[in-house]
């Protein structure tokens, strides 16, 4: 599908700085269930991530809202973790793989 191709291309283009990973972590506020609602968020980081503001996608040869498609089809970091490593997978507690404000070690930089 178009979104998965965009995700693969973004992953390839961004692998040097792990921005795709950061996008998934920053996106924990936006999930596959609420991403459409989050398009009206006033949070500037969420606006950039979802392509409401800025031209992140354009600079990568993608649509600016490419992360909306990625989040809808793949999920955010929490959803991916839970599906493969957490309760839906091999059931490893998330522990240090939580966001810093939830007691974990993940502290994502702003998605720019």
From TrEMBL:
Protein's name according to its UniProt entry: Amino acid ABC transporter substrate-binding protein
Organism of this sequence: marine sediment metagenome
